[in-house]
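Q: I have 279 residues here and want to know how they pack in 3D. Can you give me a structure?
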Amino acid sequence: MGISLGLGLGISRAVGGAAGGAFSPLDLGADLQLWLDGQDTATLFTDSTETTPSANGANVGRWKDKSGNGRHADKTNVTANYPVRDDAGIGSHCAVDFDTGVTVPGLSAPWAGTNPGATDITGGTRFEVWCVYTSSNATAYVLTNDAGAFANYWTIWTNPAVGTFAVGHHMYVTMSSGAADCGFATALGPVAIVRGIIDTTLPAGCAGIEVGGVAGTMTAGYDPALGGVSTQTRAIYVGSDQAGLYSNKGAIGEVFYVSRLLTPSEAAGMQAYLSGRWS
């Protein structure tokens, strides 16, 4: 089930105020390129025209962006199944539930140009994404810019089975010349606060992941001299890949895309903010 992002919603600092501490996502300024917040029910609508607010149990066809950039997450295929608003989607908190029991395209968020902060990893590009979600025993794409070509993309995904990759949460980057994966071995059921990182200064020059503030382990290496990632204009898909082949079997509460790396204090603030909101 997918949603794509369209254009703009501005909010005040007071609305975005940090329930988990002094930090607010708005402190990131223009570097905050995308912010989806399931607890803010005023951002959930049944379709992209925003005619009808989504009620508990109703379809979500638009999830409005709170970054001020207008990258609203819209349903990409209006004839397919929809995610729904769930007022108890994550604990007692409202979230967008993608676990409809069927495979559906997710929501997608288009960019006006090449994804900010992700134009060319060989040129020293750094960016990060944060996502709060639950995921059951399923292989799923939670957040990705995979446009179906299966090359030159990044994804936060979950792996339930022992195999090449560790069981748990992953940040994966691939391109035609190689791939890198950072995994975190943990059960998939409980709510996860995941930070996915693209950073050419990391070991293997590519990706990193933290779950609950704890770093995962690189399971495959990538030489950034071999090629770039996200060099095309692409949407970010929320809740599945573009084709809906790997829909998340769970709820998504909050999503961020930041076009640089957070400082240690900012990362700690974001972690505290999200922990306070979603515990």
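Q: Anything worth noting?
A: The two ends are 26 Å apart (CA to CA). The domain at 2-9+24-278 is CATH 2.60.120.200 (Jelly Rolls).
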